[in-house]
Amino acid sequence: MDLHPKPVFEAIGGEAPLRRLVDAFYDRMDSAPEYAGIRALHPPSLSGSRDKLFWFLCGWSGGPDHYVERFGHPRLRARHLPFAIATSERDQWLGCMQWALRECALPEDLQKRLLTAFFQTADWMRNQAE
Predict the structure, then answer these.
(1) What is the CATH number of domain 13-124?
(2) C or N: which end of the chain has fewer Cβ atoms within 10 Å?
(3) Mean pLDDT across the chain, nearest whole number?
C-alpha cells in the first residue's frame, strides 16, 4: 500500500486524459438509454456540462483550479439542489463514470480510488428520499 499516492491529476496523466474521461462520461450519458434519467437533468447541449465537470475535476484532482477561477467555490451540493437527485440518479451518474473509467483504460487501482471518492460525493449530492 502506497502511503503517499500521487495526486489524481498526476496519476491520470494531466489535462488531456482527464478531458478524455469527461468526454467518455458524457458520451455514454448521451447515448445509453439506461442513463436517460440523468441525461434529462442536463441541457440539450452537453458542451457546457462537459467543460464544467472537466474544470472542476482538474482542481479537485490536484491540477489547475479552472473551475474556481471561473465560478468561485464549487458549492457542489448547493449548485445541484435545483435537481431531484435520489439513489437512482446517483447510481446512474456512477454507472456512467465507471464505464468511462474502464473505457479510458485507467489503471485498476486508480479506477477504484476514483470510484470510492466519486461514490462519497455522489451519495452526498442526494436530495430526495428515493
Answers:
(1) 1.10.490.10
(2) N
(3) 94
Helix then strand then coil, in percent of the chain rounded to 5, is 70, 0, 30
pTM: 0.92
Residue 28's alpha-carbon distances to 12, 63, 69, 74, in angstroms, are: 20, 25, 28, 24
- In single-letter form, the type of residue at position 123 comes to D
* DSSP symbol at 41: T
Are the beta carbons of 44 and 52 closer than 8 angstroms? no
pLDDT digits (tens, 9 = 90+) for 10-24: 999 999 999 999 999
> How far apart, in whole angstroms, are the C-alpha atoms of residue 106 and residue 30?
21
Q: Where are the domains of the chain?
A: 13-124
